[in-house]
Amino acid sequence: MPVIVVESPGLLTTVQDLGRPGYGHLGVAPAGAADPVALRVGNALVGNPPDAAALEMTLAGGRFLLPEGAAVALTGADGGPVLSGQPAPMWATVEVRPGERLAVGAARAGARCYLSVRGGIRVPLFLGSASTQLACGLGGFCGRRLQRGDVLEIGAAEGGYECRRLSARALGHFAPANTLRVTAGPEWERFDAGAREAFLAQAWRVTADSDRAGLRLAGARLETSGFERMITEGVDLGSIQVPPSGQPIILFVEQQTTGGYPRIGVVASVDLWRVGQLRPGDEVRFSLVDLEEAVRLIREQEQLLASEEFLFGE
User: Fold this and answer.
1) CA distances from 75 to 40, 60, 90 (A)
2) How many whole angstroms separate alpha carbon 219 and alpha carbon 158?
3) Which of 72, 141, 185, 240 has a CA that sits 20 to 30 A from residue 98's CA?
């Protein structure tokens, strides 16, 4: 069985796939790749199913030995990858020869880089998913971040593949952007006009205490009076809660599944991958769209991700 040997795990590297949605009623967050678009493209580049497990590296990558070699792809944040001393391309199929080492450095922009390998990372599934949920120690490789000396099995690959790279058109379309489209949250109308205007008008700064559970934002305080008696209820991925501090929190892939803070907005599904590429210090703005537009946008994105010509054409 071919393997990947972790010689250096970087800042935070975990095994992730497309997550385990549908278990919120059991208190289990979806987890999965913070940038599912990068994961899906990486898998397409090496001939894997879209949900094959890969390595997610946060802010700073790592160094990996592939004793038997493999076809791999690096997508997402550019960490200046190097293969056996030579620069390796991002967003392209890379053939690693037996015994070669792949190193990924600090992300130049964005937050997360994905290493997809033909055959996927083979780990035991929890609730049908290989994704790691760090807070609960579930899934992935032993339920934790990777450590030096870890040896991960590579799964068996089916069918053929061809070496290719993401098209310039697709790269432009999926370039990170710091404006997130949002729909009105369940409590939108209960916020006063001043709070709603301030939420949309200002640039919010991503703070250093953000993680996969939630991105905490700093800016001019939003007024939250009148919400003191809210009852805790289920919350969705991408919900933007406003606690008494008046500083919004974007609930993310390892979110808690219930909450009692008012939700001023919900990040549209089409832009959830952009949340995964925000890093501390980044500024982010919100643009309000209605549900009809949000549905149209995610359908359009899914069509693009299903189009071989769009992804890999000239």
Assistant:
1) 9, 14, 6
2) 50
3) 141
CB 118 within 8 A of CB 34: no
- In sequence order, the β-bridge partners of residue 155 are none
User: What's the rounded Cα separation, in Å, for the pair 3 and 207?
Assistant: 37
Q: Residue 69 gets which letter from DSSP?
A: -
Q: Which of 283, 17, 250, 287 has its CA nearest to residue 132?
A: 17
Q: Which residue has the tokens 């700064």?
A: 205
pLDDT tens-digit map of 134-155 = 988 999 999 999 999 999 999 9
Residues 123/130, Cβ–Cβ less than 8 Å:
yes
pTM: 0.96
| Residue of 79, 90, 68 whose CA lies nearest to 8 | 79
Extended strands (E) in 185-262: 204-206, 214-218, 233-234, 239-241, 249-251, 258-259
What is the distance between the terminal CA atoms of the chain, rounded to a whole angstrom?
36
Closest CA to 140 of 251, 257, 245, 16: 16
pLDDT at 314: 67
Contact 265, 294 (CB under 8 A): no
Percent of the chain with pLDDT over 70: 100
State how far the Cα of 29 lies from the Cα of 22, in Å rounded to an integer: 9
Complete domains list, the chain, with CATH? 3-166 (no CATH), 179-308 (2.40.100.10)
DSSP type of residue 133: B
Show Cβ contacts of residue 23 under 8 Å, excluding neighbours closer than 6 positions: 30, 127
Q: How far apart are the C-alpha atoms of 53 and 294, rounded to whole Å?
A: 28
